[in-house]
Amino acid sequence: MDKLLLLSQISLFDELPMSELKVIDELSQMKPVKKGTMILSPDHPIEALFLLKEGQVRLFRMNQQGKQFTVDVLTSGNIFGETSTLSLTDDQIYAEAMVDTYLCIIGKSEFENFIEKNPKIALKFINILSNRLKEVYSFSEKIALSDVKYRLLFLLQKLSEKTGKRKKEWQTIDMKLTHADIANMIGSTRETTSAILSQLKKDGIIKKGLRLSIHADKTNEILEEI
Q: Quick one: angle between helices 148-163 and 179-186, nearest 10?
């Protein structure tokens, strides 16, 4: 697999000339990661940035009772991790590969030396952080004010906007998610989540094919009632 080609397709670096991409290519390490591998954890922190070229990574927290709460699911083109001057996660976050995944890894010192010479990249990181904060605040509000059905629909809408494609009234969700994954993201149980998904399917609001899809117009109408 051509690491330089993969780097050129990561949105963070889409404005860099090939000469700069070659520098990053020399600084970074391409690493294949098997499904189920724990990439980061509070017990095993790594001061590095992870560029997710191919695959899917779940970021989650875990309480003292071992209950998991999924913070985000990242797909190809996303970035996570932290250095001493930049944090796109935090020290209580777990990162797990949900499918076989390819990562480009840039160490702390290499990244910080690079970013000092590339202020445009620093500005892009600010934009990434800003967008993630907006998503967290928006989702936190729905978690606090809505019942499980509305939380679920809001999540599916956001995931479809983030990863999917629109075909007429249907919007796909182009990632692999189990009912347990979805339950962890909305603070519910798998049983409750499965029951609501079944009802939404009967109501013609979602459908299942190779990927889960939502009826965009019906979903918007329901969410506007909140």
A: 110
- From residue 66, how far is each of 40, 45, 71, 72, 111 by CA, in Å? 16, 19, 15, 18, 34
Tokens coding 134: 């907006």
* pTM check: above 0.70: yes
Task: Please give the Cα distance from 99 to 95 (Å, whole number).
Answer: 12
The label of the residue with tokens 């010192």 reads 109
Q: How far apart are CA 220 and CA 217, in angstroms?
A: 5
| Vertex 68: Cα angle to 66 and 74 (nearest 5) | 145
Question: Residue 2's closest CA among 37, 39, 54?
Answer: 54
Place of tokens 């050129």: 8
Hey, how many other C-beta atoms are within 10 angstroms of the C-beta on 185? 26
Cα–Cα distance for residue pair 145/188, rounded to 1 Å: 14
Instruction: Note whether 57 and 157 are within 8 A (CB).
Output: no
| Chain segment 23-75, per-residue pLDDT in tens | 777 888 889 999 999 998 988 888 888 888 889 998 888 888 887 777 788 88
d(CA 150, CA 220): 11
Give the tokens for residue 39: 């990439």
